[in-house]
Amino acid sequence: VQLQASGGGLVQTGGSLRLSCVASGLTFGSYRxxxxxxxxxxxxxxxAGVSWSGGTTSYADSVKGRFTISRDNxxxxxxxxxxxxxxxxxxxxxxxxxxxxNMWSPGGMNYWGKGTLVTVxx
Length: 122
Fold this sequence. Notes:
The protein is mainly β. It has no helices and 11 strands. The chain has strands spanning 2-6, 9-12, 17-24, 31-38, 45-50, 57-59, 67-72, 77-82, 91-99, 111-112, 116-121. The protein starts with a strand and ends with a strand. The model has no long low-confidence stretch (mean pLDDT 97).
């Protein structure tokens, strides 16, 4: 299984980025997909998650109203649209896949990608 995240970069406060994660080696449409992030010297935290069908989404309170998660099962891809970015959003962003359940705990995910760095300058 491979999860390849891309789309990170350097952006100014208030800017936008769109992250993508392409999955291979798994039945993509059977997995819930999530985005997590880890800032320096901090624990990995949940950012956003989407159900296998795309019909249900969940967000961390810190990103509600600014970030949008979506998926395209025909393309085996999950996206994270990030708007109104703040310096506090600076982190390595990881996509992850989980089969079944309904929780979004980092320890409960089945597969992880390598991450893409997002840096928001003030």
